[in-house]
């Protein structure tokens, strides 16, 4: 069958549905059938699924003209999705096409949710099309004879690639692909990504730089001109609007008319606890919504989530309070309006959420922005600019993640074993390890086999063995089993399943929250008030309660930082505070009372001013700096500055930061004049100073935690199985100290520092920020009271610590012994 | 100089490595060394730095050298796990250490008592010495003062400017002294002192009463 005939089949199908294929869909079909690899840039709900399922199936038809009558079993294509919640929806689309076109292709799902029985069945007979997650793909590579399973696989599609890029799951995917390129005889690799700043790089990472696949690839962009309107919810009385906070409940009543005026509204919150609280409060204030609103977040059990998603589709819900769990995938036509509660911290994410509404072509998307505190109104105004300019951020891919590589090599050793020469040439072609040297490779192999760089007689280290023919293999079943349980790169706190005593599963909560509860305590979870009974194994038993409570589980989750572009837009918005009113946005106009308050003791900085405020409270001496550069840069700058200050005189302080500025809180005042006189914002020796400052605080420690788990040095147990491995568990904190004292040159230990630099501290941006500050006039305002600008920072409880004082000296000043 | 405390008229000296010395009896009390933990982890495929194995013996030597005790009593959890090759290092250490060694068994001590007895180390469930009761798990007994381990105690300190610190400590109530874990590669558990409790924290090379 030639291409025209194949296209005809597809177009016919579209016609039967009363649709017309978009040009980006046809472009993708053509490229795929022409043997190309590629990246498809298309937003959720645009029909991207059909853009790639069709050519996969058409290609099968092309190669098997007798496809209607004859069918050879076996895996033919893989669809990777970052969220297992999305797999059902994708399966339905795929099955529909496969069936309507008269093929006999089967579609299966394999994720962490798949039953053991189903998995065993798949082992003997794989579905033709497999939908799976990056972790489950690695698990397949960890099973014996995987090369036979994959050999006839002709396509792999990595959906939502932008979500994986810039994470270690992305690296895991790169490694998986590098293996599949060899194992599959004829493989096409495709990615699907929402709009990000570095789309070309995204394609390079997916396919491998300088690889044949990259040479023979294409970027297809869906040009769907969609109008997005951002509306800020501005409080009527600015005077009573809070200076800090993150819940936004003050504006709850403003949301009610929005919900009433639209068919279905999605309310996006930033955290799961915020989601729980909003859901409770709406029902409390407006009981008439009972049964018409629902909640959706990652810790709610799967059945409930699927039910909610279904209910959105058949229009039986007025509103859903949700988190990023509804960011991706699933297409909800009935959603008319989206409300973002609190700053979304990223333009791409904001656009994606806006795109959840008004799905029908040509319809405009409306998104309301609800600020949770006064400063966020500046953010609201900046976001509107960002949407107008489409100022989307980059996703920075990881380089040299040796922890993921160690895990991957162990995975290969667990299944069929590997020969180093073969694998080395494969991984050299990935983006992440393009710079790997022979020396480092040898180091990693030594580490796998000996757990160190030399052999000692009394050492009983056991993991990977080298067989007579040079094959690296794990032969110990217990080690293999432990490794399979550990596969993955998302390291979280251990989570505990929450169940009714009779066994009904409600969801999962991080262990540290449960550990603070006593029997009889009542907490809110999954929209219910639950009484905690006991903890048993890795399960918390609860029963329903009628008592009211303020206890809401909090989930740690990462805090996101503003991109460079967004920070600049934010600064520019703030600078308009000094302009005449007619040149200001509504948001800035509304902020006048706060600006006036700010000006009582301090200033609202102008473009050429850099503001420092100092004041004393019950908590200590506050020193606040306002670079307006985003969290990541502030984290780095505060670390650098406090290190430099400590060189002038020993100091102990705790650091807090948000997207506007950072704080150094100390028990003694810091001499700001000395900071200015000594030019401590200089870019000279920036790198080495930053490096030294890291040794005295805890950022690298936290990075090491993930590295230790991913590389298999810390065993986390089998949380869901309830099997305890107490004698093998140690905290990564202890391990960090042991490495620092005994093996500081270990690559895994070093990686903690490199990652802190490149991913957390954004070294490059820090330099630019310091250069900008050098051009500004430093304005130091000693104040009597906290200013409105400082409020959100000084009330932040998540802090870094830094000290270069002698411990014994500090103890003498610390007398109070703390509860808890 | 080291900090000391009086209990039932006897003097006990603290050491910043985590031991207590009963002066009159020349008896050194040490708890929760967890020997063999590093080797155990390595045997099960966790690449904890191998050099860390020796650190425990270095600090043991240091404290023995400081007090030159007549007897050393380990208050349990001397070995972390089942027998591994680190036992040989322990044998060497016992052979060259000029003190009598006693073990009060802890929950981790699963190595056969015969192995210890062969080295001349007697094992007890608990030990009564005058008014003093030596155990691994904390015990309350009328008329006795209890020395024990098991908990790996630490306390949290707080100061002005939201400063917080967690430090391992000797934790003393009116009838009990819980020793900190002596071992290198061991964690801690934070305790909340009551008014009448005394806490001696280990700060770098000093023991400080708070």
Description:
The complex is a heterodimer of chains A (820) and B (210). In chain A, helix 6 crosses helix 9 (168-183), helix 16 crosses helix 22 and helix 25 crosses helix 31 (763-774). Chain A starts with a helix and ends with a strand. In chain A, strands 3-4-2-5-6-1-7 form a seven-stranded parallel beta sheet, with helices on both faces. Chain A is globular and about 85 Å long. By secondary structure, chain A is an alpha/beta fold. The model of chain A is unreliable at 719-724 and 815-820 (pLDDT under 50). The longest helix of chain A is centred in the C-terminal third of the chain and has 18 residues, at 631-648. Chain B is an alpha/beta fold and 210 residues long. Helix content of chain B is 19%, strand content 33%. Chain B has four helices and 16 strands. Chain B has helices at 37-43, 52-67, 86-96, 113-118, and strands spanning 4-7, 10-14, 20-22, 27-30, 71-74, 100-104, 123-124, 127-129, 132-134, 145-148, 153-159, 163-173, 176-178, 189-190, 198-203, 206-209. In chain B, strands 8, 9, 10, 11, 12, 13, 14, 15 and 16 form a nine-stranded mixed beta sheet that branches. In chain B, strands 1-2-3-4-5-6-7 form a seven-stranded mixed beta sheet. In chain B, strand 6 (100-104), helix 4 (113-118) and strand 7 (123-124) form a beta-alpha-beta unit. The longest helix of chain B has 16 residues, at 52-67. Chain B is globular. The two termini of chain B are 18 Å apart. At the A-B interface, helix 20, strand 23, helix 29, helix 33 and strand 27 of A face helix 1, helix 3, strand 11, strand 12 and strand 15 of B. Strand 27 (816-817) of chain A pairs antiparallel with strand 11 of chain B, so a sheet runs across the interface.
Largest interface: A-B, 55 and 50 residues
The strand line-up of the biggest sheet of chain A is 3-4-2-5-6-1-7
Largest beta-sheet characterization of chain A: 7 strands, parallel
- Please give the number of β-strands of chain A: 27
Helix-strand makeup class of chain A: alpha/beta
Helix content of chain A: 40-55%
The residue-averaged pLDDT of chain A reads: 85
Q: Note the overall shape of chain A.
A: globular
Percentage of residues in DSSP E strands of chain B: 25-35%
| Low-confidence region ranges of chain A | 719-724, 815-820
- End-to-end Cα distance of chain A, whole Å, is 73 Å
Distance between the termini of chain B: 18 Å
Mean pLDDT of chain B: 90
Write down the overall geometry of chain B: globular
């Amino acid at each position: 069958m030639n291409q025209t005939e194949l296209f005809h089949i597809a177009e016919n199908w579209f016609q039967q549905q009363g649709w017309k294929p978009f040009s980006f869909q046809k472009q993708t079909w053509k490229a795929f059938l022409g043997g190309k690899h590629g990246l498809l840039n298309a937003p959720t709900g645009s029909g991207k699924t059909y853009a790639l399922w069709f050519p996969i199936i058409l290609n099968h038809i092309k190669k098997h003209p007798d496809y209607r009558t004859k069918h050879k079993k076996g895996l033919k294509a893989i669809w990777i999705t970052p969220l297992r919640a999305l797999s059902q929806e994708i399966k339905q689309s795929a099955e529909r096409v496969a069936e309507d076109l008269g093929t006999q292709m089967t579609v299966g799902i394999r994720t962490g949710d798949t039953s053991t029985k189903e998995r065993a069945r798949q082992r003997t007979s794989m579905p033709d099309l497999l939908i799976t997650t990056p972790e489950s793909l690695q698990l397949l590579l960890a099973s014996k004879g995987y090369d036979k399973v994959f050999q006839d696989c002709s396509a792999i599609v990595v959906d939502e690639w932008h979500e994986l890029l810039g994470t270690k799951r992305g690296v895991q995917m790169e490694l998986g692909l590098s293996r599949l390129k060899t194992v599959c005889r004829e493989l096409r690799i495709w990615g699907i990504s929402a709009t990000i700043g570095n789309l070309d790089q995204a394609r390079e990472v997916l396919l491998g730089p300088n690889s044949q696949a990259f040479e023979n690839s294409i970027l297809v962009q869906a040009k769907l001109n969609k109008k997005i309107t951002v509306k800020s919810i501005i409080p009527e009385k600015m005077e009573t609007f809070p200076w800090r906070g993150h819940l936004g409940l003050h504006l709850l009543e403003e949301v009610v008319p929005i919900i009433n005026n639209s068919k279905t509204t999605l309310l996006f919150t930033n955290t799961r606890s915020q989601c729980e609280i909003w859901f409770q409060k709406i029902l409390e204030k407006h009981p008439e919504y009972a049964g018409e609103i629902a909640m959706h977040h990652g810790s709610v059990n799967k059945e409930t989530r699927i039910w909610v998603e279904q209910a959105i589709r058949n229009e039986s819900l007025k509103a859903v309070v949700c988190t990023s769990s509804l960011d991706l995938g699933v297409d909800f036509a009935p959603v008319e309006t989206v409300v973002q509660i609190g700053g979304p911290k990223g333009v791409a994410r904001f656009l994606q959420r806006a795109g959840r509404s008004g799905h029908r072509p040509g319809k405009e998307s409306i998104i309301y922005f609800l600020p949770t505190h006064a400063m966020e109104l500046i953010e609201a105004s900046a976001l509107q600019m960002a949407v107008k300019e489409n100022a989307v951020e980059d996703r920075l891919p990881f380089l040299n993640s040796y922890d993921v590589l160690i895990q991957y090599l162990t995975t290969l050793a667990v299944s069929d074993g590997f020969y180093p020469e073969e694998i080395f040439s494969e991984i050299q072609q990935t983006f992440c390890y393009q710079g790997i040297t022979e020396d480092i490779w040898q180091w990693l192999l030594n580490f796998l086999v000996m757990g160190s760089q030399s052999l000692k007689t009394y050492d009983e280290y056991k993991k990977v063995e080298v067989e007579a023919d040079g094959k690296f293999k794990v032969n110990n079943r217990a080690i293999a089993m432990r490794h399979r349980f550990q596969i993955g790169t998302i390291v979280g706190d251990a989570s505990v399943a929450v169940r009714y005593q009779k066994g009904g599963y409600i969801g999962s909560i991080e262990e540290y929250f449960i550990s603070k509860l006593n029997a009889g305590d009542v907490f809110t979870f999954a929209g219910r008030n639950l009484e905690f009974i006991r903890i048993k194994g890795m399960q918390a038993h609860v029963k329903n309660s009628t008592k009211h409570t303020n206890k809401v589980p909090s989930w740690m989750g990462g805090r996101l930082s503003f991109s460079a572009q967004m920070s600049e837009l934010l600064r520019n918005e703030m600078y308009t505070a000094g302009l005449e009113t007619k040149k200001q946005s509504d948001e800035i106009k509304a902020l006048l009372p706060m600006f006036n308050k700010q000006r009582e003791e301090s200033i609202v900085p102008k473009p050429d001013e850099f503001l420092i405020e100092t004041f004393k409270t019950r908590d200590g001496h506050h020193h606040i700096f306002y670079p307006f550069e985003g969290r990541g840069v502030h984290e780095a700058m505060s670390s650098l500055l406090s290190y430099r200050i400590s060189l002038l005189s020993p100091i102990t302080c705790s650091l807090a930061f948000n997207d506007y500025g950072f704080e150094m809180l100390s028990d003694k005042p810091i001499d700001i004049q000395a900071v200015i006189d000594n030019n401590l914002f200089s870019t000279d020796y920036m790198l080495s100073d930053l490096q030294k400052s890291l040794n005295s605080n805890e950022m690298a420690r936290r990075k090491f935690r993930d590295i230790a788990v991913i590389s298999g040095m810390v065993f986390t147990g089998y949380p869901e199985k309830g099997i305890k491995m107490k004698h093998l568990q140690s905290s990564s904190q202890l391990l960090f100290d042991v490495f620092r004292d005994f093996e500081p040159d270990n690559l895994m230990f070093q990686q903690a520092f490199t990652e802190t630099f490149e991913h957390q501290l954004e070294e490059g941006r820090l330099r630019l920020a310091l250069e900008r500050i050098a051009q500004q006039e430093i304005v130091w305002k000693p104040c009597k009271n906290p200013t409105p600008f400082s409020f959100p920072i000084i009330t932040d409880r998540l802090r870094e610590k830094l000290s270069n004082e002698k411990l014994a000296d500090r103890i003498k000043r610390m007398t109070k012994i703390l509860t808890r | 100089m080291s900090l000391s405390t009086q209990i039932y008229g006897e003097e006990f000296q603290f050491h910043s490595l985590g031991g207590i010395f009963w002066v009159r009896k020349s008896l050194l009390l040490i708890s929760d060394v967890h020997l063999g933990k590093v080797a155990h982890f390595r045997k099960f495929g966790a690449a904890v730095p191998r050099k860390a194995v020796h650190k425990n013996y270095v600090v043991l030597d240091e404290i023995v050298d400081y007090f030159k005790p007549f007897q050393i009593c380990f208050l349990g959890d001397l070995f972390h796990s089942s027998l591994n090759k680190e036992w040989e290092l322990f044998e060497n250490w016992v052979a060259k250490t000029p003190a009598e060694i006693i073990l009060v068994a802890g929950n981790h001590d699963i190595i056969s008592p015969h192995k210890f007895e062969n080295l001349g180390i007697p094992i007890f469930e608990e030990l009564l010495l005058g008014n003093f009761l030596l155990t691994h798990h904390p015990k309350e007994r009328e008329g006795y003062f209890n020395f024990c381990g098991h908990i790996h105690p630490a306390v949290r300190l707080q100061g002005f400017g939201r400063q917080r610190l967690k430090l391992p400590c000797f934790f003393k109530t009116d009838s009990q002294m819980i020793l900190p874990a002596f071992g290198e590669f061991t964690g801690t558990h934070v305790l909340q002192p009551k008014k009448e409790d005394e806490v001696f924290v280990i700060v770098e090379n000093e023991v400080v009463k708070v």
